[in-house]
Automatic annotation (TrEMBL):
Cellular localisation: Peroxisome
Organism: Electrophorus electricus (Electric eel)
GO molecular function: delta(3)-delta(2)-enoyl-CoA isomerase activity; fatty-acyl-CoA binding
Highest taxon of the lineage: Eukaryota
Keyword Membrane tagged: no
Primary subcellular site in the record, as a coarse category: other
Residue intervals of the ACB domain: 41-126
Recorded catalytic activity of this chain's protein: (3E)-nonenoyl-CoA = (2E)-nonenoyl-CoA; a (3Z)-enoyl-CoA = a 4-saturated (2E)-enoyl-CoA; a (3E)-enoyl-CoA = a 4-saturated (2E)-enoyl-CoA
Protein name: Delta(3)-Delta(2)-enoyl-CoA isomerase
Length: 394
């Protein structure tokens, strides 16, 4: 977004409407021209620029072009840059818009800019304090933000290495559903603190609820199924920014992400047999597909912990970055991805995913069925007791 508030717009749409009308008449917006020659102050101008960012409704490309042209005229005077080529639709339209104002003085352009923004703000009606989205308010163990076209879902229990509690699974499902529908272009998952995520919170299996242990296993199975489903069906590009060690279910679902970036010191560990459990997150299907049976078995059967570089060589991780520059390099790249055309990205992702959605749902169902049995097994109960008694590190 430039200082004028102009977003990148589809060249084809822009081309069509600019050809249709070179005259800026803006339907639905009453221009309060307070007299161009009076001249708005620099402060008014700066306030208007700030107000532009608070508009809730997209004013449309036509108006955005007008805003752009007035901004340029007000700040730089008449258009003095070479005319872009005919096929450079966006820049050509912007250039034409600016050029068309060459007889307007800078002071007058400033006033028109202020008037136009005022009109747009008043057309939106009185400012009502909008509460943050429901999901953003409700989260206890996640930090969810949307900025620069990126919705970031951050595991946020650093004191427990971001282990996932039962409530946190529900929050993650909500956050993913919300991110799938919001106006962000890509969604990113990452962790607070030094871990990406230590997987399932082992306390999830310690209290025996009313209804007994069988009901607990069945309910947990349902929750896990919905959790994994949210990844299988996620409609936009989903990117993991693995900022530290990752364990268990936070690793297995990585096979359902579109891109996985990892810091050099991250590790990937799926210690299921050690815990008397079995793979989930569709990893019994995605891991062999990604890395071949032999390597997948080392991870899923024999608890092999792999480094970020090893995970990259196996194909589970897309790229590894040095610890020192991880955040800056990755976020620069993600911000650039978020400027790509959203529909094209989502549709391309869906084409890739649609080929195996049915298969993935079937795998999820089968894995959950097996896990419900496992959670009731002596092997699993013993492993969890061991963790809390002796606290052996995985
Ligand atoms: C609806 C249910 C779906 C279930 C899906 C099936 C999912 C399966 C899995 O995800 S399997 C993997 C489960 N994860 C683990 O077994 C990890 C257990 N934790 C550890 O081994 C270690 O804590 C560690 C290696 C992650 C980190 O070690 P270290 O750096 O030495 O830190 P601490 O151990 O001191 O940890 C700090 C604090 O956090 C607590 N904690 C960390 N991870 C978990 C966890 N997964 N479950 C519960 N608690 C966890 C740890 O106990 C410490 O707590 P304390 O400060 O002592 O109160």
């Amino acid at each position: 977004m430039a200082a004028s508030g102009i977003k990148v717009i589809s060249p084809w749409r822009l081309f069509r409407f600019v050809r249709a009308s070179q005259v800026f008449r803006i339907p639905g917006v009453q221009l309060h021209t307070t007299g161009a020659l009076m001249g708005a102050s620099v402060e008014d101008f700066n306030n208007a620029k700030a107000q532009l960012g608070t508009l809730k409704k997209d004013p449309g490309n036509h108006v955005k072009l007008k805003i752009y042209a007035l901004f340029k005229q007000a700040t730089q005077g008449p258009c003095n840059t070479p005319k872009p080529g005919m096929l450079d639709f966006v820049n050509k339209a912007k250039w034409d818009a600016w050029k068309s104002l060459e007889s307007v003085s800078q002071e007058e352009a400033r006033q028109q800019y202020v008037d136009l923004i005022k009109s747009l703000v008043s057309a939106e009606g009185p400012a009502v304090a909008t509460p943050p989205p429901e999901s953003a308010q409700a989260f206890q163990s996640l930090l969810v933000t949307t900025e620069d076209g990126i919705t970031t879902i951050r595991f946020n229990r650093p004191e427990k290495k971001n282990a996932i509690t039962l409530d946190m699974y529900k929050e993650l499902i909500d956050a993913l559903h919300h991110a799938g529908k919001d106006d962000s272009v890509i969604t990113v998952m990452t962790g607070s603190g030094d871990f990406y995520c230590s997987g399932n919170d082992l306390n999830n299996f310690t209290g025996i609820p009313q209804g007994g242990i069988e009901k607990m296993a069945k309910d947990s199975g349902e929750l896990l199924k919905h959790y994994v489903k949210a990844y299988i069906d996620f409609p936009k590009p989903l990117i993991a920014v693995v900022n530290g060690p990752a364990l268990g279910v936070s690793v297995t679902v990585l096979g359902l992400f579109d891109v996985v970036y990892a810091t050099e010191s991250a590790t990937f560990h799926t210690p299921f047999s050690q815990l008397g459990q079995s793979p989930e997150g569709c990893s019994s299907y995605t891991f062999p597909k990604i890395m071949g049976n032999a390597k997948a078995s080392e991870m899923l059967l024999f608890n092999k912990k792999v480094t970020a570089t090893e995970a990259c060589n196996l194909g589970l991780v897309t790229e590894v970055f040095p610890d020192g520059s991880f955040q800056s390099e990755v976020w620069t790249r993600l911000k650039a991805y978020a400027k790509l055309p959203p529909k094209s990205l989502a549709l391309s992702k869906q084409l890739i995913r649609s080929k195996e959605k049915e298969k993935l749902h079937a795998v999820n169902d089968a894995e959950v069925e097996r896990l419900i049995e496992r959670w009731l097994s002596d092997e699993c109960m013993q492993a969890i007791m061991n963790f809390f008694q002796a606290k052996p590190k995985l």
